[in-house]
What does this fold into?
Amino acid sequence: MPLGHVVFIGAGPGAADLITLRGLAALQQAQVVLADALTDPALREHAPQAEWIDVGKRGFAHATGQARINALLVEQALAGRRVARLKGGDPSIFGRLEEELQALAEAGIACEVIPGVTAAVAAAAQSQRPLTRRGQGRTVALTTAMTLQHALQAGHHADTEVFYMAGQQLAALAESLRACGWPPHSAVSVVSRAGCSDAQMSTHTVDSLAEAAVLHAGRPAVVTVGVGATSAVAPPPSTEAARHD
It folds into this structure.
């Protein structure tokens, strides 16, 4: 029996129509789909012929073990099937892609990676706060706030730092941000369910970040700190200032 083929597809964040045209075409050809928890269920309509297998991971909740996912990919491809590995956001950003690529390489199975829109970019679009700014925001760092042991980590490596997987630990993240050198008045933007119709966005400082916990409770959130969290639109001139013009 000939070997199957695996294609990793970035489904984008949130709504199903944020998937790329190339990703959608590959999904429509799949015979089996291994789908992450945060991919839009509406994408199933584009591959009704496929067997869908839920292999989602959620912080502090039920998660399919990585070894099991690797085994399923190999098993399905060795059975000669066209396999779509549907990942939320972009496969190469905190998606454990390297481990799945390695498992396929060891089994001699061919694969392809189709990029997608990552959550940091979707949050920037949702909040209309560009991640880079001419003359002041030249560097961006993407950081996972959650380690394998569920320990929270923060950093200060760039003009703008975007933290994934911190939505359930905003108060702890604020403390960690101060500890690693972010000034208390640094701008912070929190966007939950970026790319969805019910997305919510709030603005804070490092000192007030803990207040966001109520608004974004139970929702996947992206936290942006620094230049990229500030408004890109200058406020209108005050009435007093206008009188002097």
Observations:
- The first helix runs from residue 21 to 28.
